Amino acid sequence: MNQIITVAINREYGSGGSIIAEMLANDLGVHYYDKEILKLASDESGINEALFNNADPQFRKTRLFQVAKSVYDGTLIPPESQNFTSDRNLFNYQAKVIERLSEEESCVIAGRCGGYILGDRPNVVRVFIHAPMDFLMQEAAKKKSLSKRELQKYIEKTNRQRAAYSEFFTGERWDDAHNYDLCLDSSKLGFERCVEIIKGYMRIRFPGLEL
Predict the structure, then answer these.
(1) What is the rounded CA–CA span in Å between residue 135 and residue 190?
(2) pTM of the full predicted structure?
(3) Using H for helix, E for strand and C for coil, what is the string for 15-63?
(4) Alpha-carbon span 205 to 211, nearest angstrom
(5) Which domain holds residue 115?
(6) 50-97 pLDDT, tens per residue?
(7) Between the CA of residue 2 and those of 22, 25, 82, 108, what are the distances in Å?
(8) Residue 210 located in a structural domain
(9) Collapsing DSSP states into helix, strand and coil, what is residue 113?
(10) What SS3 state is found at 6?
(11) Residue at 143 is within a domain
Protein backbone atom coordinates (compact mmCIF):
# COMPACT_ATOMS: atom_id res chain seq x y z
CA MET A 1 0.00 0.00 0.00
CA ASN A 2 1.09 3.57 -0.66
CA GLN A 3 -0.20 4.83 2.72
CA ILE A 4 0.40 3.56 6.26
CA ILE A 5 -2.93 2.14 7.42
CA THR A 6 -3.69 -0.01 10.47
CA VAL A 7 -6.75 -2.25 10.56
CA ALA A 8 -7.68 -3.19 14.14
CA ILE A 9 -10.09 -6.13 14.35
CA ASN A 10 -12.01 -7.30 17.40
CA ARG A 11 -14.03 -10.48 17.12
CA GLU A 12 -16.34 -12.85 18.91
CA TYR A 13 -14.89 -16.31 19.46
CA GLY A 14 -15.97 -18.53 16.58
CA SER A 15 -16.83 -15.64 14.25
CA GLY A 16 -13.75 -16.26 12.11
CA GLY A 17 -12.41 -12.82 12.94
CA SER A 18 -8.83 -14.03 13.27
CA ILE A 19 -9.10 -15.84 9.94
CA ILE A 20 -10.54 -12.72 8.31
CA ALA A 21 -7.77 -10.59 9.82
CA GLU A 22 -5.10 -12.93 8.47
CA MET A 23 -6.76 -13.16 5.05
CA LEU A 24 -6.95 -9.37 4.90
CA ALA A 25 -3.28 -9.00 5.82
CA ASN A 26 -2.31 -11.49 3.11
CA ASP A 27 -4.46 -9.66 0.54
CA LEU A 28 -2.93 -6.31 1.47
CA GLY A 29 0.60 -7.72 1.64
CA VAL A 30 1.09 -6.47 5.20
CA HIS A 31 1.98 -8.05 8.53
CA TYR A 32 -0.67 -9.72 10.73
CA TYR A 33 -0.19 -9.27 14.47
CA ASP A 34 -1.88 -11.18 17.24
CA LYS A 35 0.12 -12.99 19.92
CA GLU A 36 3.34 -11.75 18.34
CA ILE A 37 2.59 -8.46 20.09
CA LEU A 38 3.24 -10.20 23.42
CA LYS A 39 6.74 -11.17 22.32
CA LEU A 40 7.45 -7.66 21.05
CA ALA A 41 6.22 -6.18 24.34
CA SER A 42 8.43 -8.62 26.24
CA ASP A 43 11.46 -7.66 24.14
CA GLU A 44 10.80 -3.95 24.63
CA SER A 45 10.17 -4.10 28.37
CA GLY A 46 12.52 -6.88 29.43
CA ILE A 47 9.58 -8.55 31.21
CA ASN A 48 9.32 -12.33 30.77
CA GLU A 49 6.95 -13.20 27.92
CA ALA A 50 5.22 -15.76 30.15
CA LEU A 51 3.85 -12.92 32.27
CA PHE A 52 2.28 -11.34 29.19
CA ASN A 53 0.73 -14.69 28.27
CA ASN A 54 -0.69 -15.09 31.76
CA ALA A 55 -2.24 -11.64 31.51
CA ASP A 56 -3.80 -12.41 28.12
CA PRO A 57 -7.64 -12.05 28.00
CA GLN A 58 -8.33 -15.79 27.75
CA PHE A 59 -6.32 -16.57 30.88
CA ARG A 60 -7.74 -13.86 33.12
CA LYS A 61 -9.37 -14.60 36.45
CA THR A 62 -12.76 -13.18 37.41
CA ARG A 63 -11.31 -11.29 40.37
CA LEU A 64 -9.55 -8.88 38.01
CA PHE A 65 -12.84 -7.38 36.93
CA GLN A 66 -14.13 -6.81 40.46
CA VAL A 67 -11.78 -3.86 40.95
CA ALA A 68 -12.03 -0.35 39.55
CA LYS A 69 -11.35 0.22 35.87
CA SER A 70 -7.77 1.10 34.95
CA VAL A 71 -8.23 2.99 31.70
CA TYR A 72 -5.14 3.20 29.50
CA ASP A 73 -3.50 6.62 29.46
CA GLY A 74 -0.16 5.82 27.83
CA THR A 75 1.86 5.92 31.05
CA LEU A 76 4.57 3.31 31.64
CA ILE A 77 5.52 2.27 35.17
CA PRO A 78 9.34 2.37 35.66
CA PRO A 79 11.32 -0.86 36.36
CA GLU A 80 12.18 0.21 39.91
CA SER A 81 8.51 0.25 40.87
CA GLN A 82 6.95 -2.77 42.58
CA ASN A 83 4.11 -2.46 40.06
CA PHE A 84 6.41 -2.85 37.05
CA THR A 85 4.94 -6.27 36.19
CA SER A 86 1.37 -5.37 37.15
CA ASP A 87 -1.54 -6.11 34.80
CA ARG A 88 -1.79 -2.42 34.03
CA ASN A 89 1.85 -2.10 33.01
CA LEU A 90 1.79 -5.29 30.94
CA PHE A 91 -1.15 -3.84 29.03
CA ASN A 92 0.61 -0.48 28.67
CA TYR A 93 3.67 -2.09 27.09
CA GLN A 94 1.47 -3.96 24.62
CA ALA A 95 -0.25 -0.66 23.84
CA LYS A 96 3.08 1.06 23.22
CA VAL A 97 4.03 -1.70 20.77
CA ILE A 98 0.72 -1.28 18.95
CA GLU A 99 1.22 2.50 18.74
CA ARG A 100 4.73 2.04 17.36
CA LEU A 101 3.62 -0.51 14.76
CA SER A 102 0.86 1.84 13.58
CA GLU A 103 3.43 4.58 13.04
CA GLU A 104 6.03 2.42 11.27
CA GLU A 105 4.09 0.10 8.96
CA SER A 106 0.74 -0.86 7.54
CA CYS A 107 -0.59 -3.88 9.41
CA VAL A 108 -3.62 -5.80 10.64
CA ILE A 109 -3.96 -6.26 14.40
CA ALA A 110 -6.34 -8.78 16.00
CA GLY A 111 -7.65 -8.00 19.46
CA ARG A 112 -5.40 -6.40 22.14
CA CYS A 113 -7.81 -3.39 22.33
CA GLY A 114 -6.04 -2.06 19.24
CA GLY A 115 -9.04 -0.05 18.09
CA TYR A 116 -9.23 1.82 21.38
CA ILE A 117 -5.47 2.40 21.66
CA LEU A 118 -5.33 3.83 18.14
CA GLY A 119 -8.83 5.30 18.13
CA ASP A 120 -7.83 8.94 17.74
CA ARG A 121 -5.52 8.31 14.78
CA PRO A 122 -6.77 9.14 11.27
CA ASN A 123 -5.01 6.16 9.65
CA VAL A 124 -6.89 3.45 11.59
CA VAL A 125 -9.85 1.30 10.56
CA ARG A 126 -11.67 -0.35 13.47
CA VAL A 127 -13.69 -3.50 12.75
CA PHE A 128 -15.84 -5.83 14.86
CA ILE A 129 -16.65 -9.33 13.55
CA HIS A 130 -19.67 -11.09 15.08
CA ALA A 131 -22.16 -13.85 14.31
CA PRO A 132 -25.16 -15.69 15.81
CA MET A 133 -24.45 -18.42 18.36
CA ASP A 134 -25.22 -21.30 15.97
CA PHE A 135 -22.53 -20.06 13.58
CA LEU A 136 -20.07 -19.43 16.42
CA MET A 137 -20.60 -23.02 17.58
CA GLN A 138 -20.21 -24.39 14.05
CA GLU A 139 -16.87 -22.66 13.62
CA ALA A 140 -15.65 -23.30 17.17
CA ALA A 141 -16.35 -27.03 16.76
CA LYS A 142 -13.58 -27.11 14.14
CA LYS A 143 -11.08 -26.31 16.93
CA LYS A 144 -12.67 -27.68 20.09
CA SER A 145 -13.84 -31.27 20.66
CA LEU A 146 -16.63 -30.53 23.13
CA SER A 147 -20.31 -31.38 23.52
CA LYS A 148 -22.76 -28.77 22.24
CA ARG A 149 -23.52 -27.60 25.76
CA GLU A 150 -19.85 -27.40 26.73
CA LEU A 151 -18.99 -25.64 23.48
CA GLN A 152 -21.65 -22.97 23.98
CA LYS A 153 -20.46 -22.39 27.56
CA TYR A 154 -16.86 -22.10 26.33
CA ILE A 155 -17.81 -19.53 23.68
CA GLU A 156 -19.88 -17.49 26.14
CA LYS A 157 -17.10 -17.56 28.73
CA THR A 158 -14.41 -16.55 26.22
CA ASN A 159 -16.49 -13.66 24.91
CA ARG A 160 -17.30 -12.50 28.44
CA GLN A 161 -13.58 -12.50 29.23
CA ARG A 162 -12.75 -10.51 26.11
CA ALA A 163 -15.50 -8.02 26.89
CA ALA A 164 -14.42 -7.66 30.52
CA TYR A 165 -10.75 -7.27 29.58
CA SER A 166 -11.61 -4.51 27.13
CA GLU A 167 -13.90 -2.68 29.55
CA PHE A 168 -11.35 -2.92 32.37
CA PHE A 169 -8.57 -1.25 30.39
CA THR A 170 -10.58 1.07 28.14
CA GLY A 171 -13.82 1.84 29.97
CA GLU A 172 -15.69 1.04 26.74
CA ARG A 173 -18.10 -1.76 25.87
CA TRP A 174 -16.35 -4.30 23.66
CA ASP A 175 -19.41 -4.91 21.47
CA ASP A 176 -20.64 -1.30 21.19
CA ALA A 177 -21.00 -0.41 17.50
CA HIS A 178 -20.11 3.21 18.30
CA ASN A 179 -16.53 2.08 18.90
CA TYR A 180 -16.06 0.71 15.37
CA ASP A 181 -16.05 1.87 11.78
CA LEU A 182 -17.49 -1.45 10.57
CA CYS A 183 -19.46 -4.21 12.31
CA LEU A 184 -19.76 -7.31 10.11
CA ASP A 185 -21.82 -10.48 10.56
CA SER A 186 -19.54 -13.18 9.17
CA SER A 187 -22.37 -15.75 9.05
CA LYS A 188 -24.22 -13.65 6.46
CA LEU A 189 -21.24 -12.42 4.47
CA GLY A 190 -18.67 -15.22 4.62
CA PHE A 191 -15.01 -14.62 5.32
CA GLU A 192 -13.99 -13.55 1.80
CA ARG A 193 -16.77 -10.97 1.49
CA CYS A 194 -15.86 -9.56 4.90
CA VAL A 195 -12.35 -9.02 3.56
CA GLU A 196 -13.68 -7.38 0.41
CA ILE A 197 -16.00 -5.09 2.38
CA ILE A 198 -13.14 -3.93 4.61
CA LYS A 199 -10.99 -3.26 1.55
CA GLY A 200 -13.88 -1.41 -0.13
CA TYR A 201 -14.31 0.77 2.95
CA MET A 202 -10.59 1.53 2.93
CA ARG A 203 -10.74 2.64 -0.70
CA ILE A 204 -13.60 5.04 0.07
CA ARG A 205 -12.15 6.33 3.32
CA PHE A 206 -8.62 6.87 2.00
CA PRO A 207 -8.79 8.38 -1.52
CA GLY A 208 -5.77 7.45 -3.61
CA LEU A 209 -5.04 4.34 -1.56
CA GLU A 210 -3.57 1.61 -3.74
CA LEU A 211 -4.55 -1.90 -2.63
Answers:
(1) 11
(2) 0.88
(3) CCHHHHHHHHHHHHCCEEECCHHHHHHHHHHCCCHHHHHHCCHHHCCHH
(4) 13
(5) 6-203
(6) 777 766 655 454 444 444 455 666 677 777 777 787 778 888 888 999
(7) 20, 15, 44, 15
(8) no
(9) coil
(10) strand
(11) yes
